[in-house]
Amino acid sequence: MESPPLIADTDNFCSQIFSKYGSSTAEHHQHLIAVTGAMSQTLKDNNQPLSLIAYFGAACSSLDSISSESEPSGHALDSLLTILSLILPGLSGAVVKKKFELVAELVVRVLRGKEVSEAGVAAGLKCVACLVMVRGSVSWNDVSQLYGILLSYATDSRSKVRRQSHVCLRDVLQSFQGTAILAPASEAIANIFERFLLLAGGSNASSSEGPTGAQEVLYILEALKDCLPLLSLKSSTNILKYYKSLLELHQPLVTRRITDSLNVLCRHQKGEVSAEVLLDLLVSLAVLISTNETSADSMTVTARLLDAGMKKVFLINRQICVVKLPVVFSALADVMASEHEEPLYVAIEAFKSLICSCIDDTLIKQGVNQINESAKIGSRKSAPTIIEKVCATIESLLDYRYAAVWDTSLQVVSAMFDKLGDSSSYLLRRTLTNLADMQKLPDEDFPFRKQLHECVGSALVAMGPETFLSLLPLKLEAQDVSQVNAWLFPILKQYTVGSSLNFFTESIFDMISLMKKKSAVLEQEGKIREARTVDGLTYSLWSLLPSFCNYPLDTAESFKDLEKALCGSLRDEPDIRGVICSSLLILIQQNKKILEGNDDISGTETNNPRERALASYTPEVAAKNLNALRLSAREILSVLSGIFLKTSKDDGGLLQATIGEFASISDKVVVSRFYTATMRKLLKVTEEAGKAQNSKSSNSMEVDSSSSEVSLSVARAQLFDLAVSLLPGLDPKETDLLFVALEPALKDSDGMIQKKAYKVLSVILKSSDGFISRKLEELLNMMIEVLPCHFAAKRHRLDCLYYLIEHVSKDNLEDRRHAVIASFLTEIMLALKEANKKTRNRAYDIIVQIGHACGDENRGGKKENLRQYFYLVAGGLASETPHSISAAVKGLARLAYEFTDLVSSAYNVLPSALLLLQRKNREIIKANLGLLKVLVAKSHAEGLHANLKTVVEGLLNWQDSTKNHFKAKVKLLLEMLVKKCGLDAVRAVMPEEHMKLLTNIRKMKERKERKLAANLEETRSQFSKATTSRASKWNHTKIFSDFGDEDDDSDNEYMGADSVSGRQTKNVSVLNSKASTLRSKRKRKAAKLLPEDSYDQIDDEPLDLLDRLKTRSALRSSEQKKAESDDELEMDAEGRLIIHEEGQKPKREMPSEPDLESGSQAGSHVSVNSKKAQKRRKTSESGWANTGSEYASKKAAGDVKRKNKLEPYAYWPLDRKMVSRRPEQRAAARKGMSSVVKLTKKFEGKSVSNALSVKIKRGKKKANKKNR
Fold first, then answer.
1. What pTM was estimated for this model as a whole?
2. In this structure, are residues 189 and 150 in contact, taking their beta carbons and an 8 Å threshold?
3. Spatial separation of the C-alpha atoms in residues 367 and 427, rounded to whole Å
4. What is the DSSP letter of 1169?
5. Over 80: is that where the pLDDT of 869 sits?
6. Cβ contacts of residue 266 below 8 Å, gap of 6+?
7. Is 621 helix (H, G, I), strand (E, B) or coil?
8. How far is residue 1202's CA from residue 1188's CA, in Å, rounded to a whole number?
9. What DSSP designation does 730 have?
10. Minimal CA–CA distance to 1188: which of 1216, 1205, 1214, 1209?
11. Hey, which family's this protein in (predicted)?
12. Highest mean pLDDT range out of 91-105, 513-527, 599-613, 1223-1237?
């Protein structure tokens, strides 16, 4: 019987029984309901309250009377015991104690009878347990009898009764915790366990009792699984001693119950246990795994037990635990060697857990000290320490015995490196050597290259680069370049953190010098290829500098020495300037973040060295580091400025960014000095450019001096960039001086100068809000005066306009904000039509950003301001030129896409948009269809239903034009409407003359659904990947494309985007347009040159060319496919194998063209490489697949019937030209078809194959005559 819940409502006991068991068909439940109902009715008849106490008294009296009968009813006894077990937990302790003897005597009398069923006995045991728990606080003598009853049922043959007894014993022992009666209760369980062990062993027992005793031992072991953690220390120790004897029997049933019991014991937080006895048991289990073949399930349970048990023993007695660690580690290694999946991963987790919990600094120091002492005396006299034995086991995981699980073994080795830290150079030295040897294995034998590099990276992290490279050198001095450990460079770059700049200065620079000399020698010897390889190694050494600048521990002490080498390299080696600049940027930015308190690493996974480095990077340390960098800033700024003005291109802007970072930390005096010098040079160059321009305009006969003008323009642009780079270290007066120099440059006719001036101005406006406040009126007037703007400078001018509008939007003056936006909005919208992609994108961004500035309440905006801004943009619909109208429509579409609140406002301009479709202007139509697509995709179905008729009629009225280019796009919009509103709703508003289009949409949809159902498994994986790839973003190219989108889920592109209202990011499929498909054809054609198309198609991922394993597998699979296609066995018609002699390849017979006209035979004279020849050859191959030869007779001229074959027939082979769009090809195909009828009489009586052969010969003769 299932365990019913306690009664919560004491005044509604009967109704709860009825509600719980009223619908049950079980016989016992029906009897329970009947007895409860009768008892409730009796209480009502006697005018007694329906309380738990009343039910308790009625149940006891009924139980007493029924049990006294000569033949009591078993069902009644079961029901009464169940009712009593439900009532007792709800009564107060005083009531139970008062009626303790009465209830105990009744329950015991009933349980001793034979009329009670299993359900009744289980209920009775609950009553006994409740009585014991209430009375147990008095004395052991009061509860010993009832406790004995619980124990007597612990070995009952009935599983439900036995399980209930175990649960009751657990609850009783739990209530005894901390009391004096826990000891006798625990001793009773230990005694019964010992007694049954003696019975099972045959002591003082007859031969018939042996098996019974063995079975009861298993029952007691099951009970101990719940009770062992709750027993007293003395009793649990005695029982654990018996466990060891039972383990020696090697009986799987006994061993499994023991391990389950020990697992519960070890994971129990408060259970008392003898560490010595438990450790002895764990060692026995470990030895059992190593010496006996056990099942995968047993190994899994034992591995988990070793993990939990050793950690518990370590907490109780560390000294005895660490002594047995080598045995346990060896057992876990044996589990890993079994290669069973579940035990393998459990053993890995156990390894990692024990390494983290049981290996402490004391253990590590003992091993390191022993190694150092042995090194001093030159010999080893003492035995290996515990940690050395453990490390030897870890090292053994790299043996070939574990080759199949090397990927998981490397995880354990990595965990050991992380734990040992610096000491791993002493304890895992040979392990590092073994890892280097594994790198030499070929890819075919070693598919775990990535895991190996991660493990080596863990070793690098633990030891540090200096120690690591001393144990595993790069071998740059090797004569053969192939012997250099170049595979270490990516690992050093990725895992070096918290290192020493001094090591780079002293060691890495020496390696770089060595490589330079070696390259020079090789170049003198004429070994250019080897010299370039050495140059590559030199660059790889330089590429380690950013990693060494990642939280170095000695910046303040060692940067001065590094500065000299860096300045010299910056001047002399242009190729490494980017590496040096990025390194300096890392140094400055990291220290600035720490000093400002912005270096937040919480919530991110950080490795140990980064944590250690950051622990030492206090604000005081960061201040010292920045001071050291500040002392070197003058020299470095001088070098960087000189290089910047001499170079024609600043790759990635690294030079300019580095100058800006140094300017931000340098002394103001130093920065001002460089700034003054830069502005003087700028003034001088500007004057020279003005003189050159005046000279050119005054003397038209002068020789063209365009080259000098270009050089002057480049110099001015570079000086502007250098000046703005120093902006972080300038004061407001110097910033104003730069602004004065910018004003004439904004009006310059040279596009390069104008672009650079706008870029510098945008940087100033972005970085200094105070500058905008001081110069706002002047800036607004200037932005109008400097018009027109060169097309190259428009993107940066848009940035300037945005910063000005954003600043104005922060004020509460709505009239001023409206006036400023209106004055520049037309220019911003027209930028949406710019040819330059970056300019268009920036214009779209600015339109959205202005919307956020107007509507974001956190930034002082209002919803009403956003709506006014939207209608301000909509005012562009009244423009005169199609260019301006289409720009306004695109702006509206972008705002409706970004702000869901504006969709309803967009419907207000919908009539105007539909009216514009009638203007027959492609530019306007394309923009309006894009707006409609956004509205359909972003609107809810309710909003679409209200405007559905207007949208459909507007689309279809325009769609009647036969010369438009947007029919596919209109069809796509209708498909989206069908998806959103349903087919019936669209049909209701669809004009009758366009019903065929709707029918076509319905059929295409049904066809796709059938295709999807036919290929369910394949399409399911592809669809799931397509719809969960990423959240979509705005793509105006796809929205306003000229083509219709063929993707079935195209509207999902818009529905998945983030909007202001809702902000629900969904994973949607990407909108694939026909234009993008056409543009990607060339890419797909190039991609077919790689085996990526045939490799791992189900993953739908690009081939990772940096992964050697995948690349080799792809190449191997393509070779196999090629071999399969080339080495197919050739068979003749009768099934015999055809073998060709060596060196002779069978000639492929080119199928001849059967057309009577020469137009069909042209393919035989066209080059094989031409597309036309391939298409014609494909036509001929497909058309002549069946020639009728199987019906030809060897004895007669006609055809014969074959058994199990269709009847012979005369036919003309299918020709692809029949469905060609070209009229001349269709005419040729029809002409060939008409000739069949004419030749019917001539070929009468001949077989199909003979007729065709005659026709072929005639065609060849005609062709030969023409060639002559």
1. 0.71
2. no
3. 8
4. T
5. yes
6. 278, 305, 308, 309, 311, 312
7. helix
8. 12
9. -
10. 1209
11. Belongs to the RRP12 family.
12. 513-527
